[in-house]
């Protein structure tokens, strides 16, 4: 009996996907639930598992091909035991898929790798069997690969890369102007599309303020060890900003709203998107019902999303929805910026680098840990007064966190 391996259902906002890489070639045996192929979409990388045990008899698309929901990717024969002949392409011509799906020396049959890690070990020509995984069930994470590289002595591959770089330097010294053209990834193209969409379809303004984080830092220093022992998670700054944002959103519901045609949708819930950097670009996973989560729960969810972003396991469900977004450019050293809206949301909060600066407190000049805050908002539904007061509410919540914690 033969079984068709089809492109899984994609969300309404995603039209198609790109074949990122096959992990089995025609004629090879496969096991049920084994990942056969990675599909890259505008937001995430999807893994397509084998629906049954058998032999992969046909591969109908090559790496880089574009596919849509329901299209047949491959054929599995449950009763076959021998290698099948070279498959035909979708057009019926002799396939070039086999050469495209030849397994890299860095891949093995008995080690499960996430798409991001698989690409990394393939590009660096590493053997994953030599890498110790720190993820769940011993899964190899990107951080594990980087630690492995740090421990290695320069090998022939590294020497070759160094020689290539030296050759490029020599060419540059000889006056050659070097260029490299690479295709834009699906995620990068989608980011560009959404940023342009936000600028074209919304009246974006940005208001600024600054916040003294001394009280927050004092709380973290005093209770850090107790918090970590009690909840098995580090107490960071993000949970304070999420809590402060929720308090401000409750007072100014227009900032938590969105525009739909000629209507304004006021959301009675608080789903906070947290912008997270990943090897593929910026993603914004959503903390649903953030108002109902404790500090520890928020920190755990933020950490989980950060790990998933790095190992490429972010799902559509993680990224869908959201009523308000927080972006922390400070982790990259940003001093000040004007964040762009994440449509259809009406506002986004930008956090920045914490710097010791002289400020006046009670008529005295003191040194305090200060951060600039930026709120970009859609002026179609949020007035300037609301935006300024919203940012002031966040500032007050962070400068007097006891009042926020006691819900005063």
Describe this structure in words.
The strands form five sheets. Strands 9, 12, 15, 16, 17, 18 and 19 form a seven-stranded mixed sheet that branches. A four-stranded antiparallel sheet has the order 1-8-6-3, with no helix packed on it. The protein has a four-stranded antiparallel sheet with strand order 5-4-2-7, with no helix packed on it. The longest helix has 18 residues, at about 155-175. It starts with a strand and ends with a helix. Helix 7 (about 240-250) packs across helix 8 (about 295-310). It is built from eleven helices and 19 strands. By secondary structure, the protein is α+β, with helices and mostly antiparallel strands. The protein has helices at about 95-100, 115-125, 140-150, 155-175, 185-200, 215-230, 240-250, 295-310, 315-320, 385-400, 400-405; strands at about 1-5, 15-20, 30, 35-40, 45-50, 55-60, 65, 70-75, 205-210, 260, 265, 270-275, 275-280, 280-285, 285, 325-330, 345-350, 355-360, 365-380. A hairpin with a 4-residue loop joins strand 4 (about 35-40) and strand 5.
SSE succession: EEEEEEEEHHHHHEHHEEEEEEHHEEEEHH
Distance between the termini: 67 Å
Mean pLDDT: 80
**Rg over alpha carbons:** 25 Å
Q: Note the total helix count.
A: 11
Strand content: 15-25%
Low-confidence stretches: 82-109, 153-158
- Which structural class do you get from the secondary structure elements? alpha+beta
Q: Tell me, briefly, the overall form.
A: globular
- The tally of beta strands, per DSSP, is 19
Which percent range fits the helix content?
A: 25-40%
What oligomerization state is this entry in? single chain
Largest sheet: 7 strands, mixed
């Amino acid at each position: 009996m033969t079984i068709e391996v089809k492109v899984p259902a994609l969300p309404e906002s995603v039209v198609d996907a790109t074949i990122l890489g096959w992990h089995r070639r025609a004629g090879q045996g496969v096991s049920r639930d084994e990942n056969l192929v990675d599909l890259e979409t505008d937001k995430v990388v999807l893994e397509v598992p084998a629906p049954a045990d058998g032999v992969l008899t046909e591969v109908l698309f090559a790496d880089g091909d574009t596919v849509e929901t329901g299209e047949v990717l491959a054929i599995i024969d449950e009763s076959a035991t021998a290698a099948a002949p070279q498959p035909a392409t979708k057009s019926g011509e002799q396939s070039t898929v086999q050469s495209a799906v030849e397994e890299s020396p860095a891949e093995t049959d008995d080690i499960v790798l996430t798409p991001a890690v698989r690409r990394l070990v393939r590009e660096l020509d590493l053997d994953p069997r030599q890498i110790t995984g720190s993820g769940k069930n011993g899964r190899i994470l990107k951080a594990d690969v980087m630690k492995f590289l740090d421990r290695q002595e320069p090998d022939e591959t590294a020497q070759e890369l160094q020689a290539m770089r030296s050759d490029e330097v020599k060419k540059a010294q000889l006056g050659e102007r070097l260029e490299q053209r690479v295709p834009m990834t699906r995620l990068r193209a989608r980011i560009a599309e959404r940023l342009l969409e936000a600028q074209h379809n919304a009246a974006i303004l940005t208001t600024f303020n600054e916040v003294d984080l001394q009280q927050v830092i004092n709380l973290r220093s005093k209770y850090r060890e107790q918090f970590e022992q009690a909840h098995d998670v580090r107490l960071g700054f993000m949970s304070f900003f999420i809590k402060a944002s929720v308090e401000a959103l409750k007072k100014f519901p227009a900032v938590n709203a969105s525009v739909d045609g000629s209507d304004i949708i006021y959301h009675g819930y608080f789903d906070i998107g947290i912008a997270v950097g990943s090897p593929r670009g910026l993603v914004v996973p959503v903390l649903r019902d953030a108002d109902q989560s404790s500090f520890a729960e928020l920190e755990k969810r933020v950490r989980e999303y950060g790990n998933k972003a790095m190992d490429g396991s972010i799902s559509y469900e993680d990224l869908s929805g959201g009523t308000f977004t927080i972006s922390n450019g400070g982790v990259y050293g940003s001093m000040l910026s004007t964040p762009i809206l994440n449509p259809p949301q009406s506002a986004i909060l930008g956090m920045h680098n914490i710097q010791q600066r002289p400020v006046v407190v009670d008529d005295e000049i003191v040194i305090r840990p200060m951060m600039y805050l930026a709120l970009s908002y859609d002026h179609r539904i949020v007035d300037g007064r609301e935006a300024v007061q919203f940012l002031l509410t966040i500032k007050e919540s962070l400068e007097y966190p006891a009042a926020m914690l006691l819900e005063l």
